């Protein structure tokens, strides 16, 4: 296989029309001549030789291979992923008006290379292609035997995985990478969803390594298991490697760009998030799917989120997309909290990141408005406009403001950037068979979630806010969730998972200091679920729950049977009306420490009286 091409050879693969940047866009066409050709250098030469080129790049329908040897390389700091030196194939930097049309082609990437880098670019459209890798970034196998007493299980490892065993430790690998075992999950082979109560089968690799013993015919016996239960025979065991080492190969890295369109794309696999966008204005996804390839016997698509948006602005639109079998959320839209270390002088503060996977993030720039919040109750204590920001290292910054910083003596302070907050629309999408939640939403701009189907392992819509662990900001102010179907969520068993879960992380003794979220409407949804908890709401000013149909299913035994269907704590301006419940018992509404409540007494299937049954599992610190 010849993987190296001089530039003169590159021209043989182009058909182009002469043009100038002012009145025409150049048309460039790639075509497969040999199924084993490496197209990496062709793409590199095209994108690097003429930095001002505006063009449409067409790939005639076929299968294209990309290898790392000739890939573009740079050090990147990608939030919620692992920083480091990475290789990219389509490196679109400082560009305008670029369209890449795959015409239904499949791009196969070999080794540790990221397909797309879009940075400091405007009007970029990518469409009509499929993304696949030569070897998966997770280890998968079918459990063929187990022993609960000895805490062992035998795994027949999937034929797509390369692996070796050294000193009783299994390592799996690809073209140019190798990793040991770490974070794991058990899936049901029939449903292709996480196994019921899958938390029972999670091995804590921080405590000890799984010991591996080769048997025969790709069968490995694992021992030294510290999970509560051994995986069931017939289930599928997946492991993506240790936390802090397994989020390196995203599908699309979008950074400091504007007007990005991704249409009719299938991401069959990624070794981290399929799409991560940071500090980007206006992103549109239409039929951007993170799914298993049709006919594949594998169980995992992306090994982290399908999509993730950090401190973006403008409009994020997600329409007609499918997000299935990834190992984290379908989307997470949020800002970032930095911790205030020190007030250096009247206009300058020292700050640092709270989570190691945020380090190096481009937190703010001159002219941005930042909000200071008290980390104990998440309440604002003032704002300031950035005059300058200086990075000392990836974790520590100094920020100078135009005017004096607010007075916050004796307060534990975090800072968020409220200039960079996007609106969000998620419509006509399907989310299912994935670990974690469907949607995480933390933006103060308008949000509409409409006409979707959700069937995730954990919560349906989670609206959080946290300045002490993940450090993801901020409060919502206008969210509408309507006309969606939620089916059998919350099967993971870690902790109760609500269909709508509004759970800013605020200690109990600080919850009366104010309300974090505002104006949330949950209406005309259909919920089919086996566990009771439908809505958990903490610290909301303005919550409407109306005209929802809730149907108890018998998919599996209830996990948290002692909870109420609606659990409202420290909220105000609440209206609950027109909801129906169909189940073995009447549904209950628990209200504690709430103000200004209107609850219709004649809701079908509900108790007529309000009770006090606060969730004893959630954040009772």
UniProtKB/TrEMBL annotation:
Signal peptide: 1-20
The GLAA-B beta-barrel domain, residue ranges: 140-236, 348-407
Catalysed reactions listed for this entry: Hydrolysis of terminal, non-reducing alpha-D-galactose residues in alpha-D-galactosides, including galactose oligosaccharides, galactomannans and galactolipids; Hydrolysis of terminal, non-reducing branched (1->3)-alpha-D-galactosidic residues, producing free D-galactose
SMART domains: PbH1
Upper taxonomic lineage: Bacteria, Pseudomonadati, Bacteroidota, Flavobacteriia, Flavobacteriales
UniProt keywords, alphabetically: Glycosidase, Hydrolase, Repeat, Signal
Protein name: Parallel beta helix pectate lyase-like protein
Gene3D superfamilies: Single-stranded right-handed beta-helix, Pectin lyase-like
InterPro entries in the record: Beta-barrel_GLAA-B_I (IPR057275), Beta-barrel_GLAA-B_II (IPR056441), PbH1 (IPR006626), Pectin_lyas_fold (IPR012334), Pectin_lyase_fold/virulence (IPR011050)
């Amino acid at each position: 296989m010849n993987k190296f091409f001089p530039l003169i050879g590159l021209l043989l693969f182009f058909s182009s029309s002469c043009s100038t940047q002012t009145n025409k866009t150049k048309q460039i066409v790639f075509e497969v001549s040999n199924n084993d050709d490496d197209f990496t250098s062709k793409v590199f030469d095209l994108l690097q030789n003429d930095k001002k080129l505006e063009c449409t790049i067409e790939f005639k329908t076929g299968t294209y291979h990309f290898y790392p040897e000739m890939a573009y390389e740079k050090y990147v700091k990608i939030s919620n992923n692992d920083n480091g030196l990475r290789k990219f194939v389509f490196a679109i930097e400082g560009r305008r008006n670029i369209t890449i049309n795959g015409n239904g082609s499949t791009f196969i990437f070999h080794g540790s290379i990221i397909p797309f880098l879009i940075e400091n670019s405007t009007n970029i459209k990518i469409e009509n292609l499929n993304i696949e890798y030569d070897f998966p970034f997770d280890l998968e196998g079918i459990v063929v035997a187990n022993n609960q007493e000895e805490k062992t299980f035998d795994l027949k490892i999937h034929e797509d995985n390369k692996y070796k065993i050294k000193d009783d430790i299994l390592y799996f690998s690809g073209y140019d990478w190798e990793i040991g075992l770490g974070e794991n999950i058990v899936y049901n082979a029939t449903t292709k969803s996480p196994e019921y109560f899958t938390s029972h089968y999670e091995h804590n690799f921080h405590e000890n390594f799984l010991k591996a013993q080769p048997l025969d015919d790709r069968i490995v016996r694992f021992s030294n298991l510290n999970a509560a239960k051994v995986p069931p025979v017939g289930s599928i065991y997946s492991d993506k490697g240790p936390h802090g080492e397994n989020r390196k190969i995203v599908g699309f890295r979008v950074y400091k760009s504007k007007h990005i369109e991704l249409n009719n794309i299938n991401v069959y696999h990624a070794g981290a998030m399929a799409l991560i966008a940071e500090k980007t204005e206006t992103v549109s996804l239409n039929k951007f799917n993170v799914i298993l390839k049709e006919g594949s016997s594998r169980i995992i698509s992306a090994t982290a989120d399908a999509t993730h948006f950090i401190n973006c602005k403008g409009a994020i639109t997600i329409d007609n997309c499918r997000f299935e079998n990834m190992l984290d959320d379908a989307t997470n839209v949020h800002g970032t909290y930095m911790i205030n270390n020190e007030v250096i002088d009247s206009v300058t503060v020292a700050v640092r990141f709270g989570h190691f996977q945020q380090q190096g993030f481009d937190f703010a720039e001159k002219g941005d408005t930042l909000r200071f919040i008290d980390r104990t109750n998440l309440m604002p204590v003032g704002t300031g406009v950035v005059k300058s920001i200086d990075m000392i290292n990836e974790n520590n910054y100094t920020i100078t403001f135009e005017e004096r910083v607010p007075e916050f003596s004796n307060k534990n302070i975090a800072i968020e950037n409220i200039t960079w907050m996007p609106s969000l629309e998620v419509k006509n999408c399907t989310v299912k068979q994935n670990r974690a939640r469907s949607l995480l939403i933390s933006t103060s701009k308008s949000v509409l979630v409409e006409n979707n189907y959700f069937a995730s392992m954990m919560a349906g819509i989670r609206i959080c806010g946290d300045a002490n662990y993940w450090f993801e900001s901020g409060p919502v102010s206008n969210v509408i969730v309507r006309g969606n179907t939620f089916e059998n969520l919350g099967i993971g068993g870690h902790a109760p998972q609500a269909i709508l879960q509004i759970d800013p992380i605020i200690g109990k003794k600080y919850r009366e200091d104010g309300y974090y979220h505002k104006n949330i409407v949950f209406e005309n949804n259909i919920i089919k679920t086996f566990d009771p908890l439908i809505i958990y709401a903490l610290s909301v000013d303005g919550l409407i729950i109306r005209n929802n149909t809730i149907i108890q299913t018998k998919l599996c035994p209830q996990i948290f049977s002692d909870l109420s269907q609606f659990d409202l704590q420290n909220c105000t301006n609440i209206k609950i009306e027109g909801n129906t419940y169909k189940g073995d018992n009447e549904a209950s509404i628990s209200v504690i420490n709430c103000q200004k409540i209107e609850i219709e007494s004649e809701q079908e299937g509900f108790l007529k009286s309000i009770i006090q049954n606060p969730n004893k599992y959630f954040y009772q610190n």
